[in-house]
Specification:
The complex is a heterodimer of chains A (553) and B (88).
Chain A lengths: L2 H28 L2 H12 E3 L3 E4 L2 E2 L5 E14 L6 H12 L3 H10 L3 E8 L1 H13 L5 E10 L7 H4 L11 H5 L1 H4 E4 L3 E4 L5 E2 L11 E5 L3 H17 L4 E7 L6 E7 L7 H4 L9 H11 L7 E3 L4 E4 L2 E4 L6 E3 H7 L2 H11 L1 H10 L26 H8 L8 H13 L2 E3 L4 E6 L4 E3 L5 E4 L3 H17 L13 E10 L5 E14 L6 E8 L11 H18 L9
Parallel strand pairs in A: 3-10
Antiparallel strand pairs in A: 1-8, 2-7, 3-4, 4-5, 4-6, 8-9, 10-18, 11-12, 11-23, 13-16, 14-15, 17-20, 18-19, 21-22, 22-23
Helix pairs in contact in A: 3-5, 9-18, 11-13, 11-14, 11-17, 12-17, 13-15
Chain B lengths: L1 H56 L1 H10 L20
Classes of the chains: A alpha+beta (553), B mainly alpha (88).
Chain lengths: 553, 88
């Protein structure tokens, strides 16, 4: 065979081989495609874990109160462990899991078991380094998200809780679950020979979670909770509430419950008969309607007043009291006479104007509307008793709003707890704007009522509420509680104080409630609540640097 | 014959290039996924450190540290503000 023919022959052989290869490739990728695709499916593709991303809850200054962080769950697969003793040593060193626990789990579990969940990224990094350097196998690391609270229990009652799947269970976490969370469903991804995921554009996700900003000031909240807890434990109360509102804007600055439980925010959900703190409402209504004058006086009936066969008692030394004195000494007979003169229809109308009997729509789940019966069902004794805070049930947020009316010149303001929601795409939904619901009282009524309330603190039962250097206005209250059999209990009380400071230009309206204080006799008469008010007010005034308004320092 | 061989060679080269690019795409994809995981981990670590800073600078921690150093909380009524706040 000559050279040319040899070359041609080699070319034909190469061509034949190439044609065979192409033919084989064609056959595998078309005729046998399904068979090979099924075989490679499990080896090539895998499912990522479903996730739920979650936004943050912050106070009005941007201090983070709740956030979700990526953490890890560490698990062992027994059949893949190559060196058990070395592995247990590493796990103990990095995660702090005792050897005894590891041994116990190893004995009890068949193959797969979790060693520790919610492992921080720092501990995960240490663990991974040691596993790689010592070439230890059998450890499986799962990514998860954990909800964390940098300020621990602050505002826990309002914030609420989330479950293990990062979804809201109670409180604000539940109310804003839709805005805060974003589901990231499981995706099918391609896996390389070494197990790593191969990136694909379809894996990219746009975050659409939002951050919820509250009107709460976290430092004020911390102080209020600390003070409330201190006295609640001292007086061994069943529960306690402290609520701070800016009277000019309606914004809630602090709202504390004791005990503090996830999602149980007593400032919005608790209802009670307000007792003597309600005497101010009746007196203001009567003055505003012209039924009484600032200098009106009332006979104290020798401390026993008969209203259609029912005796209302008092313990007054003077036979006649002015309206100011009625509030200063907290006379039930005086307050009852004021509201009886006003009349049930007018009194009911003012109660509605002050916002009692309906929800304030502050924006918290489970808010109570209180109980205010139609005036047509009232007997004269009910009208008299309503004057000193019985036969009507209110929530703390309603009462603080009513006292804010006195503080801001006569307007009922819409209370706000949620300031705004900020979305990842830059949108901001501003929810809190100072909004006047209605004008309740005339300006000269408010001026007079403020003077009465200052007298209560300077001369009357509210003396413990004084703050050195500042004018304080407010009213004490003590109520006997209803028991299960529908009777008032002599030994179970609610003691409260509601007021505002500085009286000349109020920055905050503050309400303190102690439910069934047991330690001290004084607590039964609202003095303890007044003392708590004073301590809270002192902190707030010092924190914000409010100049004193009292002439005598 | 030469033309046919040239065409087959060209097609072969084209397939080779396509296969090469696909392999490179998979390798790059793996590298990108690894980098994204590293970035996500570093972000998580930074956020965790921010969280720890939040705890250490929170009022509870600061008060405990201050007490340990012998500092005493001032009576708020003893704080006197010497100048008016600028309201504008």
């Amino acid at each position: 065979m000559n050279t040319k023919k040899r070359i041609q022959f080699c070319g034909l052989v190469c061509l034949a081989i190439a044609l065979w290869v192409f033919g084989r490739l064609f056959y595998i990728q078309t005729v046998q495609h399904k068979e090979f695709a099924e075989k490679t499916q499990d080896r090539v593709y895998t499912q990522t874990k479903a996730d739920t991303f979650r936004g943050q809850i912050l106070d009005k200054n941007g201090v983070v109160l709740a956030k979700s962080l990526r953490t890890y769950a560490v698990a062992l697969s027994k059949k893949n462990v190559n060196n058990k003793d070395a592995l247990f040593k590493v796990l103990q060193e990095t995660l702090g899991v005792p050897q005894s626990k590891l041994n116990k789990l190893w004995r009890e579990k068949k193959n797969f078991f979790y060693v520790k969940k919610k492992v921080s990224p720092l501990d995960y990094e240490k663990l991974e380094k040691l596993l790689n350097s010592q070439k230890l196998t059998g450890v499986e690391l799962e990514r998860e998200y954990t909800r964390l609270y940098p300020y621990e229990d602050i505002a826990k009652d309002m914030i609420g809780a989330t479950n293990s799947k990062n979804r809201g269970l109670s409180g604000l976490e539940l109310m804003f679950d839709k805005e805060l969370s974003q589901e990231a469903p499981s995706q099918t991804v391609k896996r390389s020979r070494w197990g790593g995921i191969i990136y694909d554009k379809s894996l990219e996700r746009e975050l659409s979670t939002a951050d919820v900003y509250l009107t709460i000031d976290s430092l004020a909240q911390y102080q209020v909770e600390s003070v409330l807890r201190k006295y609640a434990e001292r007086y061994r109360v069943k529960s306690a509430i402290a609520l701070v509102q800016e009277p000019k804007t309606g914004y809630i600055v602090a709202a504390a419950s004791y005990p503090s439980l996830d999602g149980r925010a007593l400032p919005f959900q608790f209802t009670y008969e307000p007792g003597s703190t309600f005497k101010t409402i009746g007196a203001a209504a009567a003055l505003d309607s012209g039924t009484i004058q600032p200098n009106s006086i009332f006979f104290m009936e020798n401390n026993k007043w008969n209203v259609n066969g029912i005796i209302i008692k008092d313990h007054q030394e003077k036979p006649w009291l002015t309206v100011s004195e009625i509030l200063e000494v907290s006379s039930n007979i005086g307050a009852g006479k004021i509201t009886l003169d006003l009349g049930s229809k007018n009194l009911f109308s003012y109660f509605k104007k002050f916002g009692f009997g309906i929800k304030t729509n502050v924006g918290f789940l489970g808010e109570s509307a209180g109980i205010l019966r139609e005036f047509s069902t009232w007997k004269p004794i009910d009208t008299a008793k309503a004057g000193y805070g019985y036969t009507v049930s209110v929530s703390p947020i309603q009462l603080v709003g009513a006292y804010s009316v006195f503080a801001n010149g006569g307007t009922l303001m819409q209370p706000h707890l949620i300031d705004r929601i900020e979305y990842q795409d830059g949108r901001v939904e501003q929810l809190a704007k100072p909004t006047a619901v209605r004008t309740v009282l005339q300006p000269n009524t408010v001026t007079q009522v403020k003077k009465w309330l200052e007298n209560v603190v300077n001369k009357g039962t509210g003396k413990p509420a004084k703050v050195k250097g500042y004018r304080v206005a407010g009213k004490t209250g003590t109520t006997e509680k209803y028991n299960a059999s529908g009777k008032y209990e002599r030994n179970a009380h609610i003691a409260s104080f509601c007021g505002f400071v500085p009286a000349s230009n109020p920055e905050w309206t503050i309400l303190v409630i102690l439910d069934e204080p047991t330690s001290e006799q004084r607590a039964l008469f609202g003095s303890a609540s007044a003392k708590i008010f004073s301590e809270i007010a002192s902190y707030l005034l010092a924190m914000k640097g409010v100049p004193p308004d009292d002439e005598v320092l | 014959m030469k033309k046919v061989l040239s065409l087959i060679l060209a097609v072969g080269v084209l397939f080779f290039i396509i296969s090469f690019l696909r392999i490179q795409k998979e390798k790059s994809g793996q590298r990108i996924a690894q980098l994204m995981e590293d970035i996500a981990f570093k972000e998580a670590r930074n956020q965790y450190l921010d969280y720890k800073v939040g705890i250490y600078t929170g009022p509870q921690a600061v008060i405990e540290k201050a007490k340990a150093q012998g500092l005493v909380a001032i009576d708020p009524t003893k704080v006197i503000v010497l100048e008016e706040k600028d309201e504008h």
